[in-house]
Amino acid sequence: MLYLGCHLSASAGYLHMGQEAISIGANTFQFFTRNPRGGTAKPLDLSDVAAYLDFASAHGIGQIVAHAPYTLNGCSADPAIRDFARRTMLDDLQRLDHLPGNLYNFHPGSHTGQGMETGICQIAETLNAILTPDIRTTVLLETMSGKGSEVGSRFEELREIIDRVALSDKLGVCLDTCHVSDAGYDIADDLDGVLTEFDRVIGLERLKAVHINDSLNPRGAHKDRHARIGEGCLGAEALGRVVRHPALQGLPFVLETPNELPGYAREIALLKALREG
Ligand code: FE
Ligand code: FE
Ligand code: ZN
Predict the structure, then answer these.
(1) C-alpha of residue 160 to centroid of ligand 3, in Å
(2) What is the CA radius of gyration of the chain?
(3) Rounded to the nearest whole angstrom, what is the distance from the C-alpha of residue 104 to the centroid of ligand 3?
(4) How many CA atoms, within 13 angstroms, populate the side-chain half-sphere of residue 130?
(5) How far is the CA of 69 from the centre of ligand 1 (A)?
(6) Is 0.90 topped by the overall pTM?
(7) Residues measured by CB to lie within 5 Å of ligand 2, the ion
(8) What 3-state DSSP class applies to 253?
């Protein structure tokens, strides 16, 4: 089963996102849990959630990916910023408990000059403060491009975070094809090698979602500029190999390319065609 979708605006609610996904040939989607700049979330509309859950099961929508605001930073040198990340993520997880069994993806953070080890420890502390045994959401660390002082561009860094979290059975990883290429991994020409390395360092059983993006920049650029499928340095053929790879079957693939809905519909059709080979 191929679960394929894209990032959607959450402003009109869950049912609307589900309907939009189906209208463009998707059967999963991603959304920001709140304004990406990190403000307060609007109150959860439980009737919208109930209507979405009915719609999703009727239309075969698989696991969906809630994305934390990308400005959160659980390893900032500023303790107030770390505290804000903690409170926001906790609130997100409490809301997501109304949609059990889904995924919550976040950017591990930027150590802002404190050094990688301190960053890793503070991210783990953040997770230890918010994870509880009863949550029904899997929390995903996203692989990062290594821009600035970002933590999580090396698989080893993600592994170290996971190792320091007590309830690590609640954790997984979301692999972003643009980011891993920007981080230096040769996902375009050596996908098998990259996945073997992921398995050796983190374990493929932790891989729970894929962000399927082309990159405007060559491997190792540490830029994080997404391109449309086939319009970047990875290319459509290489991204086709990603959606076809046997080790990745059943995972949600989410496009985060610069597109409006019609562009996403075209990319979904393109990736479906590439998957058939
Ligand atoms: Fe992201
Ligand atoms: Fe991403
Ligand atoms: Zn990105």
Answers:
(1) 22
(2) 18
(3) 16
(4) 27
(5) 9
(6) yes
(7) 176, 211, 256
(8) strand
Three-state DSSP state, 174: strand
Q: Dihedral sign, CA of 73, 75, 80, 84? A: positive
Contacts of 246 by beta carbon, 8 Å cutoff, 6+ apart: none
Q: What span, in angstroms and rounded, lies between the C-alpha atoms of 202 and 127?
A: 17
The rounded Å distance from CA 226 to ligand 2 centre is: 9
Cα(130)–Cα(137) distance, integer angstroms: 12
Q: With 80 as the cut, is the pLDDT of residue 95 above it?
A: yes
Query: What pLDDT was estimated at residue 30?
Result: 98
Instruction: Grade residue 37 by pLDDT with cuts at 50, 70 and 90.
Output: confident
Task: Give the pLDDT band of residue 161 (cuts 50, 70, 90).
Answer: very high
Dist. CA 227 → ligand 3 center (Å) = 10
Cα(166) to ligand 3 centroid in Å equals 28
| Sign of CA pseudo-dihedral 167, 32, 121, 94 | negative
Burial class (CB within 10 angstroms; exposed 0-12, middle 13-18, buried 19+) of 141: buried
Dist. CA 179 → ligand 2 center (Å): 7
Nearest ligand, measured from the Cα of 210: 2
Position 151 scores a pLDDT of 98
pLDDT at 183 over 90: yes
The answer, yes or no, to whether residue 209 has pLDDT greater than 90, is yes
Which stretches does DSSP call E strand in the chain?
3-7, 28-32, 65-67, 103-106, 109-110, 138-142, 150-151, 171-176, 207-211, 214-215, 226-227, 252-255
CB burial of residue 270 (10 Å; 0-12, 13-18, 19+) = middle
